[in-house]
Amino acid sequence: MNRMPHVVLALLLAPVLPLVSVANDWPADSAPTLKVGSFDDLLINQRPVEVFHHGVRPEWGYKQPQRDTFIVVHPKIARTNAPLYVVLHSAGHDVMSCLKCTRTVGNHDIYRSPDDFYALYLDCRANKGDWWWGGMHMGDAGMTQRNGGPNLTPAEKRVMDSIRWVMAKYAIDPNRVYLSGNSMGGSGTLGIGLRHGDVFAAIKANVPAGIEHASHRMGFPPQSVPESVKLPEPPVAIDYSGQNDGWSVGHDRFVKAMNDRRYALYFYWGPFGHANNHAAIEKVNDLVNSFDWLSVKKNEAYPVFANASGNGTLPWPADLKSKAAGQRNAFFRWKNISDAKGRVEMALFLATPATLKTTFEIPKEATADVSLRRIQNTHFGPGETFKWTFVGAHGEGKADGSGVITIPGLKITSEPTSLIVSQ
Fold first, then answer.
1. Is residue 81 predicted with pLDDT exceeding 80?
2. Which of 129, 115, 192, 119 has the alpha carbon at shortest distance from 159?
3. Would you say residue 4 has pLDDT above 60?
4. pLDDT higher for 228 or 39?
5. Residue 357 has what pLDDT?
6. Distance from first CA to last CA of the chain, Å, rounded?
7. Tens of pLDDT along 91-125?
8. Predicted local confidence at residue 143, as pLDDT
9. 3-state SS string over 109-176?
10. Side by side, which strands form the sheet with 393-398?
11. Coil, strand or helix: which one is 25?
């Protein structure tokens, strides 16, 4: 006998009371409240579902009161210290239709969370103008003017407080929170996710509808980061976009900014348009799901590969009719070995045909400038000297103005090789 529906019913019949979060002191009259009712049409793989309504917190800065909804999907098998998969829907969906998409393989596949994760589905459709991206895109200068710059909009503040509330209530593993989205939600994933590396381990954007949101929030050129804004260490980012998709304009600027800022980016493209079906996209570029982004942890160091050899030539801005698929940094991998005070060791290597099935030719070696981020037990101040060794080579360097250390021109092969950095 399948008892899961009875578990769901028990959850739904719980008292309708505001749930207190230790992370967010929500006013009692606006705190998330569990909605009682039947949500059988939202069940995915018989995973328990809870629907919450809430009002606004004054510090979000909304000009008028509003009500919002978010949905929490539990792991199929109850577990503690679970990771969290956060979903931002596209402009064509709301939170309910977004979750229902996950019932069908091929229907906005990025929305589908692993069965052993908690999942949080947020909404930005109920209230006029309350978009993840602030409405910023190349064709709407008015919204860009109103919502541009480094400051978060009320919707962005709402998203982050909702995530923190869910993390506290369900005792989520704080080192395994991941953000994903499609189209407008992909734009929000980049714009909100990159800005909040203190929360997200990694982020993944399916055909993001514009890069302006991220560019403004992160101070990418032609913007800049105000001295008053301190950006946390960024998450590892995955982005796949079609050059024949009008929403992808500007990816040349975005990719360059990520490279120059030494932010980790795995980027894939091809003429797959504004697609959301992974099987269809993989017929054009079979690398979009090749990197295990859900294994990245916020409490572990990771490398950034910049100015790498073997990267494809971007079709933006001048070759948007190109039929070619391409990649940036797709084959680089790493494994943390040790992270002790004063010394970090990490193995760097390339994927191989034995570990990655792809129609792309995997290089046997590639060179890249390698930066280390999220080092846990050693702090490098701006301009501080460090020492490094790699395959018999060794040298010294200085951390940049943000304390990021970079070793230029490392030759990386399929053989895992230790990069050791010490003070």
1. yes
2. 192
3. no
4. 228
5. 97
6. 61
7. 999 999 999 999 999 999 999 999 999 999 999 99
8. 74
9. HHHCCCCCCEEEEECCCCCCCCCCCCCCCCCCHHHHHHHCCCCCCHHHHHHHHHHHHHHHHCCCCCCC
10. 332-340, 343-350, 417-422, 385-390, 393-398
11. coil
Report how far residue 197's alpha carbon sits from residue 177's, in angstroms, rounded to the nearest whole number.
10
The neighbouring-strand residues paired with 302 are 373
For tokens 């999942």, what's the residue? 119
Hey, how many other C-beta atoms are within 10 angstroms of the C-beta on 340? 11
> Which residue in the block uniquely carries the two structure tokens 């980790």?
264
Bridge partners (DSSP) of residue 227 are none
Amino acid at 194: L
For residue 394, report the phi and psi dihedrals to the nearest 5 degrees: -155, 165
**Kind of pairing, strands 385-390 and 393-398?**
antiparallel
What is the CATH number that goes with domain 4-299?
3.40.50.1820
The answer to whether the bond into 150 is cis (omega within 30° of 0) is no
List phi, psi (to 5°) of 389.
-135, 145
In this structure, what token pair is assigned to residue 31?
């705190």
Residue 89 φ/ψ, nearest 5 degrees: -80, 170
Residue where the block lists tokens 């890069």: 211
Pairwise CA distance, residues 92 & 124, whole Å: 11
For residue 324, count other CB atoms closer than 10 A to its CB: 14
DSSP letters, 282-310, are HHH-TTTT-S-GGG--TTS-EEEEES-TT
Query: Cβ of 25: how many Cβ atoms within 10 Å?
Result: 10
Handedness of CA 149, 202, 368, 352 (dihedral sign): negative
Tell me how far apart the alpha carbons of residues 45 and 116 are, in angstroms, rounded to a whole number: 11
- Which distant-in-sequence residues (6+ apart) come within 8 Å of 162 by Cβ? 32, 54, 68, 70, 120, 122
Q: What is the pLDDT of residue 24?
A: 53
Pairing, β 417-422 against β 385-390:
antiparallel
Length of the chain: 423
Query: What are the extents of the domains in the chain?
Result: 4-299, 333-423
In angstroms, rounded to a whole number, what is the distance separating the alpha carbons of residues 124 and 137?
17
| Structure confidence by residue, pLDDT tens digits, 333-365 | 999 999 999 999 999 999 999 999 999 999 999
